[in-house]
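@channel sequence for tomorrow's demo:
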Amino acid sequence: MDRRSFLKTSAIGGTAAAATGLAAPAYAQGNRTLTMVTSWGRGLAGVHDAAQRVADNITAMTDGSLTIDLKASGELVGGFEVFDAVTSGQADMYHAADYYFVGQHPGYAFFTSVPFGMTAQELANWYYHGEGAAKHDELGEIFGLKSFLAGNTGAQAGGWFSKEINGPEDFQGLKFRMPGLGGQALGKLGASIQNLPGAEVYQALASGAIDGTEWIGPWADEKAGFQEITKFYYTAGFHEPGAGLSLATNRDVFNELSPAHQKVIEIAAGECHQWNLSQFLNNNGAALQRLQAGGVNVLEFPDSVWDAMGTATEETLSEHMGDDLYAGIRESYNSSMAASSNWLVKSEGTYRSQRDRVLG
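structure tokens (generated this afternoon):
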């Protein structure tokens, strides 16, 4: 019996016992402080903002009866250690990009982004009106987490490179920072993939430890200062067309909270998803203009690179299909993406093309 089956069986048994022999749950009374660890360096544009907004809103909406103490990356644990910190009880909740934790389960990638996957709007459609939230919860149950989407960067840039990329062969031996299944796919083109927390990327690029990096988009990338190091910037990437951020609470801690406090966490996370997406999209256009004015070469990958990325993506996403939960998440995700895209392309897609044509 695998771990998931064991836990589900145990949960069923526990539920039956509770139904027959236990009274209604007792919720913790009085004021409480929860420690939130994050994958973000303090002040990282957009991503730290999202974590801080969730923390501040939970505190404000509960009038301080539930206070969130935010610890940025490195202040309590490292940026990639937040998952283990919360599952072990060292911290109460984390804010991060769940694709950092594909080592725990590859299904987590779908709640941030997968290559050639959903845009931000498509992800919201699946999550809030399809099976996405339920799938996230099913995955979190295995690890003792209660998770919600709590931020979105929108479509991310292809990244910063030390040289132009004229074909798939240019990735051979390239030391490139890219997390998640996108990084695994890029590795199939011969790149040496580095998985670094955001707070460490600038120094790695400046020192030559990496030859290039993706981060987020023009505004966050400008704030990070990558334009000080290299001038080759690809604005469209295959790897994160609408990257969600997540808030995850230790499930035992979450269950100890009152229903009102549980609902506050859910609502604060959902509000942050839209607020954060708007923050990125509102700032990216002006930031891109500044980058160009500063001498950055704004480029697009040639079709040969997109084709190679597509082939590598299909290989990567198919490698995990032996896991039933992963397969179920992927099937649900793809079905929702196809349905959403069918309308969005015909409506908003056509409108955007015509608007650009008419207005020049």
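heads up for whoever presents: Residues 1-24 have pLDDT under 50 and may be disordered.
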